[in-house]
């Protein structure tokens, strides 16, 4: 890749964009997406030219639970609705081994999803072997998703990415689940994977430090092949890289995306903004996620626990960061809230 | 006299089990069977004066009367090969692998029901830690849905667990219903790589219908924790059971409340470091099951509990 990164040649997109509004955005709506919302959002994104749309419970297949929140509508119905609505876009799903199981992948493949994104904590790639292999055997595209990637150095991240490559993944993502990466952090991790893998490399950014677009552009300069966005940023924590912003900035920078910037703005304003008009505010608790390196989907659970137990959400989040909690440990929010409440009482 | 027993499998689990069985007043560990001459477990067994073999289960099949109780700590695949041969030889098998050939057993919940089974299975570490709590709730209130989150230190999860993480979640889920008494269940497993390693953590959520008696539920949970702690000393509540009211649309129906039970398991530090409470609870449960089987054999032989225990204690003192 040239030093100036990817711009796309002959009108071909310089990278592939996956819009995760209907998956990461599920956190922001407490997993209450309806079939109608899925239909409206998929239609708008498809019209704008978004090539891949991810639809699942925020914590992936099988995420509907006490720990993460129950889905208002069965995610299989939502995936089915998305497949039926899309005319061009591929439908992707997220799956975390330990939460979902292989049967879930079989079921979404039958329903018509064609991209399986298999996510593990950044040091635990070896639990994804069976799931990546199953997705490939079903003819799906398999994407490895290394979460909380800010927690380890680029060299160690590459070792984990190589495991996913060896299982047959078509792409491995650097996932900034805590929105904790500075531009340099993102750049060095993408560069390490790009240099050390023969498959595609992606970046999934969060906006807790207001760097999601900047980090995505830095990733492109380092040769990233795939990027994630969420329309209006709708997602965990302060949200993700806003797809309509990324597309607009790319257009102004001469980076081909294959997505119509004005239609993308329409999708944001008309299809997604009404779902959560306040999306995009980076409040103190959201900044704390990025500052202390805390998993983004802990935010709303922590706010609720703070209210229930009369403690401060910021203090819960800081303690979760100190304890080095990883994605999926939402149960520890109650543990920390109770401890803080006891300290306050004592 | 103590009842002689054998361990098949000289890996991490088998070796930790060896140290615990050495302390048993009821069981006499007389053989550790492996296949790898370089195994650390076999070397340690010999160091303790216990017979060690690299011929797998062959010595047991050649002389089954000398090994009435066999602990299998190999892998599900190996146990599926071994189980029919051990059963034919008349051994009572305590299965620590995920093979699930015999009934699923959690000592304080259903061990007495299955003492006659030729082969009993110990489910998973998460199952041993959480099923008792679900059962404790279910004995005083209907549980339409139970869910558990089991978090272990990355360093305590071996390659078998890692490659078969679905087996863990599915087996544990089914045990929450089959053994715990919930109508439906879900299990989640998380690996946490923090250094120093975290102690095993388990969180149990039980859905509660209107009209539950919070004092009865909490009292039943606390009593059950004491029962488990009697054989897993590092098993404890992190906080009093918490009752949370909201509208929860669970797979078992919509309910107005849930009880949340936060547990921690610190290991005894026998072969594994104390953070590996997940491995400790498996081997401690296996000892508990084996000792009950041994008492059953005493009864069958016409020995009273006291006779057996006295002989056992004398044996232990001599060792």
What does this structure look like?
The complex is a heterodimer of chains A (346) and B (319). By secondary structure, chain A is an alpha/beta fold. Chain A has 2 domains: 16-275, Aldolase class I (TIM Barrel), CATH 3.20.20; 297-345, Helicase, Ruva Protein, domain 3 (Orthogonal Bundle), CATH 1.10.8. Chain A has 14 helices and 8 strands. Chain A has an 8-stranded parallel β-barrel with strand order 1-2-3-4-5-6-7-8, surrounded by 8 helices. In chain A, helix 2 (35-48) packs parallel to helix 3. Chain B has a 6-stranded parallel β-sheet with strand order 3-2-1-4-5-6, with helices on both faces. Helices cover 40% and strands 24% of the residues of chain B. In chain B, helix 1 packs parallel to helix 2 (40-47) and helix 6 (125-138) crosses helix 10. Chain B has 11 helices and 12 strands. Chain B has 2 domains: 3-101 and 277-318, NAD(P)-binding Rossmann-like Domain (Rossmann fold), CATH 3.40.50; 125-265, Dihydrodipicolinate Reductase, domain 2 (2-Layer Sandwich), CATH 3.30.360.10. Chain B has helices at 12-21, 40-47, 58-62, 76-88, 107-110, 125-138, 159-163, 165-178, 214-229, 277-300, 305-318, and strands spanning 3-8, 27-33, 51-53, 69-72, 92-95, 119-121, 146-153, 185-192, 200-208, 235-237, 242-250, 253-265. Classes of the chains: A alpha/beta (346), B alpha/beta (319). At the A-B interface, helix 14 of A face strand 7, helix 7, helix 8, strand 8 and strand 9 of B.
